[in-house]
Amino acid sequence: MKNLLILWLAVFSLRTAAQQTTDSRQREIVFINVSVIPMTHETVLANQTVLIKNGLITAIGAKLKYDKNALVIDARGKFLMPGLAEMHAHVPPVDEVQPMKDVLLLFAANGVTTIRSMLGHPLHLQLRSQVQSGELLGPRIYTSGPSFSGASIKTPEEAEAKVRSQKKAGYDFMKMHPGITKTNFEAIVKTAKEEKMPFAGHVSFGVGVWRSAEAGYATIDHLDGIVEAMMPRLDTLTEEEAGLFGLFVGHNADIARLDKILKTIKDNGVWIVPTQTLAEHWQSPNRTAKELLAWPEMKYMDQKTLDGWARSKDNTMKNPAYQPASVLKFIDVRRTIIRECQRQGVGLLLGSDAPQVFSVPGFSLKHELSYLVQAGLTPYQALQTGTVNIGKFFRQDNLGVIKPGAVADLVLLNENPLKDVNAVGTVQGVMLNGRWLPKTEIDAMLTKLVKN
What we know:
- By secondary structure, this protein is an alpha/beta fold.
- Helices cover 40% and strands 17% of the residues.
- The chain has helices at 2-17, 97-109, 122-133, 156-169, 182-195, 208-215, 226-229, 239-242, 258-267, 276-283, 289-293, 303-318, 324-344, 363-375, 379-384, 388-394, 439-449, and strands spanning 22-23, 29-36, 45-53, 56-61, 71-74, 79-82, 84-89, 112-117, 140-143, 174-176, 199-201, 219-221, 271-273, 410-413, 427-432, 435-438.
């Protein structure tokens, strides 16, 4: 079976390589007359020339010399910015390559040049290598291993063994899911520190956000545990009573408790991936499943998946504890948390949990950016979460910015996202690690990815 999977992956890699991309390792690529949004600071550099060679940005300026055989892209009236990152992605953890490939292409077509895959699978390690080498078209991949949860970890010994196994396998980090006991959590943390293995994701209810932050989570995702920690009677609250991410009780959150929580998170260097899209689409009463399924991007998901998403929303809203007015207050509490993270200097990273409930890969980041702005961030601050902040998180100062020496992960837009973040949806071309994918190829690719 393993050899067959490797063969499938090789075949699909060859098919992907046939797509009409230009590689800056073989031919210099030049943007002329372009407005550059460098994301090193809030500005637009008008009428610039940008040179790309060997996967890197080599020069930026008003008038530059370049190779006579270069691919020249006249981008007059367009805006060039760093590619976006989806920091809570889900490459399908299955034994089939095609679903994985489709998800990667959807991300790429939407200007997503980096993903952090939050539910790993052995094949993801091969995908990561083949994307980096250029054999497979897609965003650069950072991947967790299979998740740690109450179901997958029953003893401290199992916890220790799984940490060491994932480190040895070469995964980038470990994904935490709910249900981990305090004893097993401490075994995970101890071994992770010994192995220098980052961990991130959900906060188990029995562990709580305070201990999770102190233990050194790389990221806390979904604002998990934060709303619960703001509850006046946390000591008597049950996980079932609270609901997912505090859905059923968040309207009673004590905002006065937030500063202390965020200080602990910041002091321990933990980043936050809000995934506000989940709350605004899945949990909110403001949109029905039917309305969400009518959005144009839903055509890229198969009917079985869409039916499952609809059931998830309908089942949530049918829960006796679900009160629409209270849920709207809960969502507003989440917006306050996001706004205060920004104000108090807690690092924010862009993520929408795609493909999950009503989040279509790539397309959902436009919604997430919009919700960050609605929470109180400026367009520039929202864009930082998916660009320059990514470089800071990974400690790579050449990632998520446009400057000489930076990685050539870029997206060309028709409109200025500093005026309206929805402009990230006006993609005219994408550069993935120095490989240029023009709009004509993106359109052809998306046509082939339609599933219903």
